[in-house]
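Exam revision sheet. Question 4 asks you to relate a sequence to its structure. Input first:
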Amino acid sequence: ETLRSSLRGIPADPTNPAAWGANPKGPTGEAPATVQSRLGVALKFVTETAKVVFPKYVEQQSWQDKFMNTMMTWSAYSNEIQYWLHSDLSYVSLGHNNLNSDNAYFWRNEEGKLDCGVIDWGGFGDGPLGHKMWWTFNCADFDQFQQHLPRYIDTFIDTYRAYGGPPLDKDLFRDHVLISTLGNMMFMVRAVPDCLKMCPMKEWPTIQDRQDPRIASNVNGKSTLRTTIHVLTNTIRVLEEMGTDRVLDRFIQDIYVRKWGLTPKTHEMIF
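Answer key, structure tokens:
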């Protein structure tokens, strides 16, 4: 009770899908027209305006179709996904909700030894462990995340168990981590208009890479621009190179249809 009143708690009953806004008759994210418009702005930014800092494959129509279809589908099932991530309390725990590198700070003590601390405790509380793991790595370099994710998952599961946590299924936990990247991608999509305020359209034709100080330096004292570009790049690469579209489809077929006994949402519901 003290934790619930003092810290961020589970936002709804983890045994009741309706409490999370689940709706088998329609999308549970924003209105599809709103989502499509927002994704369209982001797609133009990624494939045209700022394409120099994103993977070359974003210019392919097949990738653009995958991006739009995946994100529209994720939005349509967004409340159901949140319910799923919270429904087994073995995969929910107290912890920092955004423990990535831009929330760490460093100093040297009187003996010259490097030390570190953590900021941004506002979201500390109960939440899905898969979300917490992804938001630990979303500002990391993608290649090391992709290469070492199996070891990170094994290490976490073993340590969690050693300190009193329940056993976790590594494949299920991996799906939790990867499906959480789609929510993070939508969060970055919403930030694209602010990117264009911090680095206007007229600047982009002469930017050659992400080390350009116009996008790599703090803007108005904030790292928001480079962080948004970096995390958006990471979530794009997870989609294309680690198959989050397939993870989303697995949720729909294995959980929504087979386990819950529901009919997949139609194209008309999603779009």
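Marking note for examiners. The mean pLDDT is 95.
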